[in-house]
Specification:
The protein is 74% helix and 0% strand. It is mostly helical and 114 residues long.
Length: 114
């Protein structure tokens, strides 16, 4: 007759042996997931540091440039108010047609090297 617990040990051992390759596959999958999780954490840390740099350095620089440009625009507006509007007191440049100086058949008239 079987003693209580004896069959259980054999059954558990047989169960552990039958799951050997499957357990290895699960462990490999877990290992891959941990590697991916580590890569993801590294990426989020990089994004976080880039975001901090943008917030701490780049945005204040952009704001300073905006203020500087607004001052320049104000100066330009003041200059435009004080200068009379420029009327067309000049003649537009004379336009020349390229065809008048280089006829279309000019290339055909050249002697072709033989």
């Amino acid at each position: 007759m079987l003693q209580p617990g004896a069959g259980e040990e054999r059954g558990a051992g047989g169960f552990a042996l039958s799951l050997g390759p499957e357990v290895k596959e699960v462990e490999e999958t877990i290992e891959e997931m941990l590697i991916r999780l580590d890569e993801f954490c590294g990426m989020t840390d990089m994004i976080r540091s880039d975001t901090s740099q943008i917030l701490d350095e780049s945005i204040p620089l952009v704001k300073a440039k905006v203020r500087e440009m607004n001052n320049i625009y104000t100066k330009i507006d003041k200059l435009e108010k004080h200068t009379p509007s420029a009327q067309h007191t000049y003649d537009l440049p004379e336009l020349y047609r390229t065809e008048d100086y280089f006829p279309m058949n000019y290339a055909d008239n050249k002697q072709k090297p033989t």
